[in-house]
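Write out this protein's structure.
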Amino acid sequence: MKFLWIFTVIFSMVVLVLGHHQTCPLPFAKDGNECITGRPVKGECPPNSTYKVATNKCHLNFNH
């Protein structure tokens, strides 16, 4: 029982890290801190994403 508080602290840190991990929905791929995908030649970016000229890719818009 003496180490129960250590277990609680370590467990809460693991939950905090895993809860903050963000995955990208298809067809997006993780690139650093962003989810990006290529833009179709004759088309628009997928829903909830915007085209950025600097990268020539569609970037997913996260609603925080």
